[in-house]
Write a structure and sequence with these properties.
This protein has about 230 residues and is an alpha+beta fold. The chain has helices at about 10-35, 40-55, 70-95, 100-110, 145-155, 160-170, and strands at about 115-120, 125-130, 135-140, 140. It has two domains: about 5-115 and about 185-230; about 115-175, no CATH class. α3 (about 70-95) packs antiparallel against α4 (about 100-110) and α5 (about 145-155) runs antiparallel to α6.
């Protein structure tokens, strides 16, 4: 990403920490609302999502200042987790309503039709977004020839994918045929979480997860996105 000189005056670590805190607090609200409704399974799902977010690196810790590129990379990583969580939640919702596996796959394809994430073992992330005008943005940059060349140099492990997306854009195919990255999300697997108790006792939150949680019985209308939307794929 080509950063603006004005970005150097922003405390990106503080912005990132505030975004993360807001996201986790929103999920805590959902978990508390599920607890109030005695919906143990849903409460467990929200606590699981919190644990996945908590497992992400926290680059704001310590005294080091973040660059705008470091901030953008952290936002993409969190956006990937949120995207996969949304897909998993929708699939669970569809199955509960008796939809066929084919319909579940169609719904997942709809989620992935305009956005794809690709990860490497060392934590690098490539995010492809299909814009309304048919162009593709990779890591928040419109895929022009010079951008493709620079990204291939910066992220050689994604070189073939970058070329694939560039060729797709030129042919007007959008994200069609793009591979689906099945990298596991960070944190514990859902199977490792404590199951609901036979007597219906609510699953308890991990230590500190509900500290300071407002006493309300309704969940927020929707999960918020980071305030710096130009970096949020």
């Amino acid at each position: 990403m080509v950063s603006d000189q004005r970005d150097d005056n922003i405390d990106w670590a503080s912005v990132l920490r505030a975004d993360f805190t807001r996201e986790v607090e929103g999920l805590q609200q959902y978990a508390y609302a599920a607890d109030a409704r005695r919906d143990v399974v849903l409460q467990r799902d929200y606590l699981h999502q919190i644990s996945q977010l908590e497992a992400l690196p926290k680059p704001w810790e310590g005294d080091a200042r973040l660059t705008v590129d470091e901030y953008a990379a952290a936002v993409r990583l969190r956006a990937w987790v949120l995207h996969e969580q949304e897909i998993a939640a929708d699939r669970q919702w569809a199955r509960k309503r008796g939809m066929s596996e084919r319909e579940c796959e169609r719904r997942e394809a709809d989620f992935r039709a305009r956005k794809r994430y690709h990860c490497t073992p060392n934590g690098q992330m490539l995010c492809a977004v299909l814009r309304d005008d048919g162009r593709i943005a990779l890591n928040s940059e419109i895929l022009a020839p010079e951008v493709a060349d620079r990204l291939r140099q910066q992220m050689p492990q994604f070189a073939d994918l970058i070329t694939f997306y560039f060729d797709n854009q030129e042919a007007g195919r959008g994200l069609q045929g793009a591979p689906i990255d099945r990298t596991p999300l960070p944190g514990p697997s859902s199977s490792s979480l404590e199951p609901p108790m036979p007597d219906g006792t609510p699953v308890t939150a991990p230590p500190g997860a509900r500290d300071g949680m407002p006493q309300r019985t309704t969940a927020p209308a929707k999960r918020r996105r980071p305030r710096w939307r130009r970096f949020c794929p």
